[in-house]
Amino acid sequence: MEFLAKTIFMNTSTHLLNLLLSTLFITIMARVALPVPEALGGIPITGQSLAVLLVGLLLPFPWGGGAVLLYLLLGGLGLPVFAEGGSGWSSFSGGSGGFLIGFFIAALVMGLLRRRGWGQHLGYSLLANGLGTAVIVGSGLLWLAHLYGWGKAMEYGFYPFWPGAIVKILLGGFIAWSMLRNRKTA
Question: What CATH code would you report for 2-31+41-180?
């Protein structure tokens, strides 16, 4: 019985450490930004969604979603963790709100795909990152369409981001696969 208690505590403390480090990773990656010319929308492409997808696929379900939820709560409470140092609950009601909620949903989806071994095969890892990206973008576009209509949603939430999204899908798929290919699913 003592062994079981130690094992549970050790696994829980390891998961909590991973959750905190993953939240920090997302925060740091939100600061990594490639500028986009004003003619193409002017909205920088950040590493935020790449980090969310990696955390979701690399941590066992539901810990990746937990890390993203903690990230969102910290941002909502005013810590400048979102892209470009954004924060506050107003971030959820503005144009970024749908994307932020999509981060949480995508991380959960990625964790479920990990359970099915999707991170262990390059093709499935790429597909998982594509599906996670679709969840984030879809959630963001639905919210933007609600706020501004579909034309503006596509103009502000899709067209400036799709080239960067493809790069992040490829990069995230390869990174996750290289880290998970020899591991058991959890």
Answer: 1.10.1760.20
